[in-house]
């Protein structure tokens, strides 16, 4: 069944879940006419500004953390444990949200290629927001072992940790079904009707958009622009579909999703996660020089490079209305200062070919 719920019904169902308000919603939604003109005027471009969720310099995880930390508080947890990349946007926002609601936060981060000392970007902000940061070698298995040891340590101290698991992606999907409701209301007020909604994030963000599309009857096509190479694309699609199905169950909706419901666009990820591409650096600079806005090289700049290239090449047909969901990541820009300046040094006349999907 498609479009069986009203926006009010979705919000009513979501309100049954524990939640702590961390930001003022809705986030802004506005047109980007100068950017659109700079790439040939082939499409009308709008941006949903989830980089402006405010807390901890914003980003899409704040919506998810409203439900995650609401659940943590409801369970009586007194410490939040998270572990991802050294420049993780998620961890930075978790640290800020934990500080806001009075929970201790411990981050176990990989000492990867952007986690050098002295700290910069997101990693610097982890300390600013009061997180206890434990650095481990850039080995996922060693990080997993360190997290397990930390949990045992905390339990021995009589603490009750809240650990981020797949459950948080399901809660995040509920949050992003609600975000799609905002987009539908805002595009209506703007007199627009999205043909495409483009996003960098997979996981709960993408799953929630798909769930909202199904429940509310959103007619546009949702595209995820892949930002890191995947060993098994179909398995990733199945994972997203599974999260969307579990989120539907959480809301009491009889909806089931399959891998074919998930549309992931490849060709813009580059060599590895967290490694900038020529295309993403071009897109970052083009957005800055046309709209005065910033995207991050890890996620949103790669996604924007994909959007620009899809419009330029006609894969998104001329005359389409495109919504770019800006999921944040602005602080990571400062950790990529060398890449940006090196790009400018070798491409001083770069303005004419921005946004091509070169990896």
What Rg do the Cα atoms give?
A: 20 Å
Main beta-sheet strand count, sense and barrel state: 6 strands, mixed
Portion of residues within helices: 40-55%
Q: How widely separated are the two ends?
A: 40 Å
- Low-pLDDT residue spans: 351-359
Lateral arrangement of strands in the main beta sheet: 1-2-10-7-8-9
CATH architecture of the largest domain: 3-Layer(aba) Sandwich
SS strand fraction: 5-15%
- The count of helical stretches stands at 12
Number of DSSP-assigned strands:
10
What does this 3D model show about the protein?
By secondary structure, the protein is α/β, with parallel strands linked by helices. The protein has 2 domains: 7-58 and 167-353, Rossmann fold, CATH 3.40.50; 78-159, Rossmann fold, CATH 3.40.50. Helix content is 45%, strand content 13%. A 6-stranded mixed beta sheet has the order 1-2-10-7-8-9. Strand 3 (79-82), helix 4 (89-101) and strand 4 form a beta-alpha-beta unit. The longest helix is centred in the middle third of the chain and has 24 residues, at 166-189. The radius of gyration is 20 Å and the shape is globular. The chain starts with 6 loop residues before the first helix and ends in a 13-residue tail after the last helix.
């Amino acid at each position: 069944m498609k479009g069986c719920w009203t926006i009010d019904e979705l919000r009513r169902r979501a309100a049954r879940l524990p939640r702590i308000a961390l930001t003022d919603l809705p986030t802004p939604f506005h047109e980007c006419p100068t950017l659109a003109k700079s790439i040939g005027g082939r499409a009308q471009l709008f941006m949903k500004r989830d980089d402006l969720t405010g807390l901890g310099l914003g980003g899409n995880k704040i919506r998810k953390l409203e439900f995650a930390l609401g659940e943590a508080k409801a369970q009586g947890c007194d410490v939040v444990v998270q572990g991802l990349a050294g420049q993780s946007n998620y961890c930075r926002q978790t640290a800020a949200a934990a500080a806001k609601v009075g929970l201790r936060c411990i981050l176990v981060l990989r000492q990867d290629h952007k986690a050098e000392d002295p700290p910069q970007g997101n990693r610097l902000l982890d300390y600013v927001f009061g997180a206890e940061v434990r650095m481990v070698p850039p080995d996922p298995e060693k990080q997993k072992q360190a997290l397990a040891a930390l949990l045992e340590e905390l339990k021995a101290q009589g603490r009750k940790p809240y650990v981020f698991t797949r459950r948080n992606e399901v809660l995040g999907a509920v949050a992003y079904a609600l975000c799609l409701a905002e987009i539908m209301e805002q595009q209506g007020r703007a007199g627009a009707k999205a043909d495409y909604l483009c996003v960098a994030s997979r996981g709960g963000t993408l799953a929630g958009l798909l769930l909202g599309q199904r429940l509310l009857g959103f007619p546009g096509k949702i595209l995820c622009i892949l930002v890191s190479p995947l060993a098994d694309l179909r398995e990733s699609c199945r994972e997203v579909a599974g999260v969307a199905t579990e989120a539907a169950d959480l809301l009491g909706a009889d909806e089931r999703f399959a891998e074919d419901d998930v549309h992931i666009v490849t060709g813009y990820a580059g060599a590895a996660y967290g490694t900038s591409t020529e295309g993403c650096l071009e897109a970052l600079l083009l957005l800055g020089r046309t709209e005065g806005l910033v995207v991050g090289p890890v996620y949103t700049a790669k996604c924007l490079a994909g959007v620009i290239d899809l419009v330029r090449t006609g894969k998104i047909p001329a005359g389409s209305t495109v919504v770019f969901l800006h999921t944040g990541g602005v602080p990571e820009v400062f950790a990529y200062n060398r890449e940006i300046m090196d790009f400018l040094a070798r491409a001083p006349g770069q303005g004419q070919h921005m946004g091509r999907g070169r990896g």
